[in-house]
Design goal:
The protein is of the alpha+beta class. It has five helices and 13 strands. Helices cover 16% and strands 23% of the residues.
Length: 297
């Protein structure tokens, strides 16, 4: 996500075909990603998915639709159009991806013009043996962290069980709701089961936590005019007891859910590996067998 000069760039937002389609992006060389570099021959492909154009409640209308005058870079009614990365440029009525060109205009699969806000709960515990002792990595001697991962139905990649922030919803509420829906299948629970689940979720999400990352996500769904942003928050179950009372069960957008050992070998969706790496640094946990500076996804 950062190159050697510590400048943000994207890689997954340049991949083809675009998710869920056969659409190929126009190729963008790394030295032409930045809008600051003049590129008169830039000719991106225009694409917005049929599911977005159908006008679901989570999607904006097309920019030139009558009666649609979005307030970019500010709170627009219940819709948050402010970016976590600061002010973004609006050109010809369309927001401009703050990181740079992607080879595709329109919104692709994303509902909002500009930032599409998500929340990613990184729920962790220490890996333990049968006696309850923490397990250290044989090479680094650092304790091994585990996190709750889901296998996404849409692309088959492992990911943090996050999701979109609903209009008017607080991020803290999104974090808890998405974890319940994706990793605990809360939507399918009986009423009495839901009460107990809510109690345990409240316990987990009200204990010590820290914000891992806030900002732009290098996501394969991003376009020149619509992009993903997230707030990733780590909720750590130090003793493991709270999560013992929350049996994992895949639901909603998840195909599978399980505890995964954290290391640099993880290949995760979007830039989720980067978020996980930041958690290990904060917790002093194992990440890499290589003592040198690790490269992040």
């Amino acid at each position: 996500m950062f190159n050697n000069s510590n400048k943000f760039y994207h890689r997954k937002a340049l991949t083809s075909p675009y998710p869920g389609s056969h659409v190929e992006r126009s190729q963008v060389p790394e030295d032409k990603v930045s809008w600051l570099i003049e590129w008169k021959d830039y000719n991106p492909v225009e694409y917005t998915a049929v599911s977005v154009l159908a006008g679901p409640s989570w999607a904006d209308p097309q920019i030139n639709d009558k009666g649609f005058s979005p307030k970019f870079n500010e709170r627009d009614g219940e819709v948050e159009r402010k970016s976590l990365s600061g002010l973004y440029v609006v050109e010809n009525g369309r927001p401009q991806n703050p990181v740079g060109r992607t080879g595709l205009t329109g919104r692709g699969l994303l509902g909002r013009w500009g930032p599409n806000h998500a929340a990613d709960p990184v729920v962790t515990r220490w890996k333990r043996d049968r006696s309850g002792n923490k397990i250290a990595h044989p090479v680094t001697g650092k304790n091994i962290l585990q996190f709750v991962a889901i296998k996404r139905r849409d692309c088959g990649e492992w990911a943090i069980p996050g999701g979109m922030v609903d209009p008017g919803e607080k991020v803290s509420a999104t974090l808890k709701r998405e974890f319940g829906e994706e990793a605990l299948n809360s939507l399918q629970k009986l009423p009495e089961e839901k009460v107990e689940l809510e109690k345990q979720l409240h316990k987990l999400f009200s204990q010590e936590h820290f914000v891992v990352y806030r900002g732009y996500v290098d996501d394969p769904r991003n376009t020149d005019n619509a992009w993903m942003e997230t707030e990733a928050v780590n909720y750590h179950d130090e003793t493991g007891e709270t999560m013992d009372n929350l049996p994992l069960e895949a639901g909603d957008d998840a195909g599978t859910v399980k505890w995964v050992d954290i290391s640099e070998k993880l290949k995760l969706y979007a830039n989720h590996s980067y978020f996980i790496k930041l958690v290990t640094e904060e917790r002093g946990a194992h990440w890499s067998e290589d003592p040198g500076p690790g490269c992040c996804e």
